[in-house]
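Message: I would love a firmer grasp of how sequence relates to backbone shape in proteins. Thank you; the sequence and its tokens follow:
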Amino acid sequence: MAVESRTLRDKVRGGAQNRPGVYRMMGTKGVVIYVGKSKRLRTRLLGYFRAKRKEKAWRIIREAAAIDWEYTPSEFASLLRELELIKRFRPPYNVRQKRDGIYWFLKLSSGPAPRVQMVRRPNNEPGSYYGPLRAREGLADAVKELNDLLLLRDCRRGTPIRFADQGDLFGVDITPLCPRYELRRCAAPCAAKISERDYLDQVAEAKAFLQGDSEGPLRELERRMSEAVERLEFEHAALLRNRRQCLEMLRTEFLRAKSMIEQLSFLYVVPSEEGDHRIYAIRSGSVRAEFPVPRTAAERKQILAVADQHYRQPEPPGQIAFRRQVDQMLLVSHWFRTRPEQMEWAYPSESWSKLPLKSKLDRQVMA
């Protein structure tokens, strides 16, 4: 072991405690190369010095010139802090967490002719995002069916848009840029085959469907299926049935995601072995505020008044807040999905009067 690594190990042995916390590994120029967390910090850090050659931990400690750490009240708090530090420093050895790859989002773009597309995660580009949707077979086909049925474009962002009601076309016949128009799968806003108002009406229908407020696309396919059966076109009816099943799957996924997010709204009490018990105000899957567990009934009343004021406020319009919160939303949903026993500490608004005081949690931790 190199002298530098032995020095780092001695620092850990002499100063780190087995408490929840987060740590940072810095390179020779002080750049953060890795951020981690553990509910037993000392044990986790010492494990780096026992890593086998070529393992990730061995590579990290081999490049590390310094280590620092901080303690947190709980494992949950360390997860939140780890996420915050990763987003701030973007360390090269921190790859996207595995749960991110499980999900997709649908993006309804902005601009004169919005389009619906699948994306890995929300970004800073304008638009509305829907999800998270579990990655599963047929999801991409379902999105294609929605675009095809509502005649929405699926071309690249920079495609020129020319609506039929634009005043500078002078009756010029423009050829669509792809065959989807001829196949009756796109309204061809690139070739002035539809007015802007009519196209935006279709976009509004897509948005209502994605929000769970409309079954219009499903009813349209049912109508076409009935007409095909009346014409004895049974193969075509079967094809329409399969298309409807695709959209039903998409709708089911959205309803599941919507339900999951709506359920993750409560005050979450997290006891700490060090006595620093915390309350997290979770709304739509993200932490909006944090409070110390009250010592007295009067303090509890004050905290609940602040929480009540927050939860009564409508969510801010637009999707900017959602884009900022999505990483935390995935973290929180993963936490409760893999630790269902933690719901015992979740207090919806009708149970706020039962929030425990610090003395009660102290006794439970010591028991």
